[in-house]
Amino acid sequence: MSNTTGRLARSFLLELNQGNSKDAFEYLTNLLSELENKNDPEPTEVRLVAQIYSFVEKLEILKSNLGSYVTESLKNLPGNKLSDLWENTSIDGSAKTLK
Asked: Quick check: 45 and 37 in contact, CB under 8 A?
């Protein structure tokens, strides 16, 4: 996994939760609410509600998978090797591999 793809995934997640995309999802939520509350919806509107639910579900799955991907890519960054070294060191300062 490259650092570039990890950064891109993280950037996408950050942008998804900020700015205009947040407003767009609020509009989508309002649209869904209006469509669900219609007394006699058209067949097109019924399909639209189903598609919005499908979209939101897939987006949540994507966000979860991207979050896992970003977490994994952060573990593989070069800066974490020093942390790994400290985690493998005992109280007397010797590494576990040397014991």
From this structure: no
